[in-house]
Design brief:
single chain; 7-stranded mixed β-sheet; 5-stranded parallel β-sheet; 26 strands
Length: 567
């Protein structure tokens, strides 16, 4: 009698799921050990990797960057399959390396002598929070404008931890304490700082607005809609690979397709949405009514079922959060408290990208908008009486707008948090009107009254902004909608205040839970439910390579198990 092979089912055909399938399928002797199947609820593979086209250019609706090329498995695969070069224009973002044009609301172009110190302050504070710079008395300090940024990080940290310690400290509160310390350090150094700038902008308001611009960018990096919810202590655990950050010329999806190419046709089943996962806890060990030798039963949206010995769950943290918040019964019995508490504490935010194609016939007063600048936007506060009333609230935390590459007619902007969710609900016409009003405000010459109030040429570039009554004509738009997509319900994870790196480790623990000796309970079939995905990696969460590593981890866990039991 031939022994029945074990069956491994992977839920999700994103980076983690396809990587796990690739490793399991190509492992020596695996075909004699188990059957393998990947079920994907959507109509495509890739998950939060979704390469598309817009305006003739290759674009990324989801994952965009290789975060450091030194040691990155994603970069290695991209090199092996020759995906780093392409004849078709792609979202290479080479324009972002240009000197950005930083313009304050109402059209005042800012001189780098004002922008650079605040940009350096923000970068140094983030380096401090991420543990890249630990300063003491013997450390050489970095100074700019007679301000020792190293001391500002120390001061901000001291103030933030003076009352409650590190337990509830957020990155947002640390950054703002750093800005306050900067202002205190400058107070008596230069009386000119007390002068008003130009128009309705004072120097202090400009500095705060530039700082807020960088905070908005950080929101898209982390997916934390509010940096006050981003945990400070865990920030130093996050790791990036060394080297430059680049995009993939042939598209990020080419990486997943390469990993999936070794799998036989039919192994990945599309349109198979799992609605319930039944498993056996050690104390219950209930017969599922179908086959007592396979402890896990998957229910699908079409009413069909599938039995498995092991299931690797790679759904997003957003889907897991929804499953426990709405008591959806996705897991039966419900996930144990140690798992649900970690899911609840960790953060999972929404980041969306907006692509805009400029009209090919649009030339206004000699300005060719196919040569759109790398624009950094400095906004008035949302509650300021001086804010431009036609700029919609959902644009005010958008830090930049820039071409996909030099001379591209397609522009890109990033949104996070509630602004990203609002973007998803807007009609194309509303988006075009809102962006047009915003950009026109920034690229138009300030009104005469505002120009007359410009007392300080130190703050602006002499002629303020050179364009007058500029109207940007947008032909069409394309937006990602990760927040409301039921297969994702968000973009990527972050460590929220109140959670920790330990919660990320907890996310990776299989069920049933290992005992204190690291063994499975003898009363229940082992390794029934395993978890992979970016939100299960302690140091590389929120990244595609984190998802890749997690897929390898769970595949290796199963391979090690079968070698251990001698099957």
């Amino acid at each position: 009698m031939v022994a029945k092979k074990s069956r491994i089912v992977i839920i999700g055909a994103g980076m983690a799921g396809v990587t796990a399938a690739n490793k399991l399928f190509t492992a020596t002797g695996s075909k004699d050990l188990f059957e393998l199947c990947v079920v994907e609820g959507g109509s495509r593979i890739g998950g939060r990797i979704n390469t598309s086209e817009f305006g003739g250019d290759r674009i990324e609706m989801g994952a965009t960057w290789i975060h450091g090329i030194g040691g990155s498995p994603v970069h290695k695969i991209a090199q092996e399959i020759h995906a780093l070069e392409s004849e078709q224009p792609w979202e290479c973002m080479d324009g972002s390396s240009d000197e950005p044009k930083t313009i304050a609301e109402c059209g005042f172009e800012l001189n780098p002598t004002l922008v650079d110190p605040i940009s350096s302050l923000f970068k140094n504070l983030m380096d401090y929070a991420q543990g890249k710079k630990v300063f003491d008395e013997s450390t050489e300090t970095e100074s700019n404008g007679d301000v020792e940024y190293s001391k500002l990080g120390d001061k901000a940290f001291e103030i933030c931890t003076s009352n409650g310690g590190l337990g509830k400290l957020s990155v947002g509160s640390f950054l703002r304490q750093g800005l306050d310390a900067y202002w205190v350090s400058k107070k008596n150094q230069d009386e000119e700082l007390k002068l008003n700038g130009y128009g309705n902008w004072s120097r202090r308001l400009l500095e705060e607005a530039i700082f807020a611009m960088h905070e908005s960018t950080q929101r898209t990096y982390t997916s934390a809609g509010d940096l006050l919810t981003l945990d400070y202590s865990a920030e130093s655990e996050y790791r990036m690979f060394p080297g430059e950050e680049i995009t993939i010329a042939k598209g990020y999806l080419s990486i997943v397709q390469s990993l999936a190419s070794v799998l036989p046709p039919g192994l990945i089943q599309l349109g198979r949405k799992v609605t319930k996962i039944e498993w056996q806890q050690p104390e219950t060990h209930i017969n599922n009514g179908y086959d007592d030798t396979r402890p896990v039963k998957l229910h699908f949206s079409d009413g069909s079922v599938m039995l498995a010995d092991h299931v690797i769950v790679t759904v997003s943290l957003g889907v897991l959060k929804a499953s426990i918040q709405q008591d959806s019964g996705m897991f039966n019995p419900p996930l144990p408290s140690f798992k649900t508490e970690a899911i609840s504490r960790l953060g999972f935010g929404v980041v969306n990208k907006l692509f805009l194609q400029l009209s090919s016939t649009h030339v206004t007063k000699g300005q060719d908008f196919s040569k759109f600048p790398f624009l950094q936007m400095v906004f008035h506060r949302a509650d300021s009486e001086f804010r431009h009333k036609k700029i919609p609230w959902w644009m005010r935390k958008t830090a930049s707008l820039c071409p996909l590459y030099h001379n591209s007619s397609v522009l890109l902007s990033w949104f996070a948090g509630k602004e990203a969710l609002e973007l998803e609900s807007l009609k194309d016409e509303e988006i075009i009107n809102g962006v047009s009003a915003t950009v026109s405000s920034f690229l138009s010459k300030p009104q005469k009254k505002e120009r007359e109030n410009c007392h300080s040429h130190e703050l602006c570039n002499g002629n303020v902004n050179s364009q007058e009554n500029s109207e940007v004509k947008i032909a069409k738009v394309l937006k990602s909608q990760w927040g409301n997509d039921p297969l994702f319900l968000g973009s990527y994870s972050y460590v929220a205040v109140g959670s920790s790196g330990e919660d990320l480790d907890t996310m990776a623990e299989p069920l049933p839970k290992l005992n204190s000796c690291g063994d499975e309970p003898a009363t229940s079939p082992p390794l029934q439910i395993l978890f992979a995905g970016e939100a299960t990696h302690r140091t590389h969460y929120s990244t595609t390579h984190g998802a890749y590593f997690s897929g390898l981890r769970e595949a290796n866990r199963l391979l090690q198990h079968y070698r251990h039991v001698g099957v």
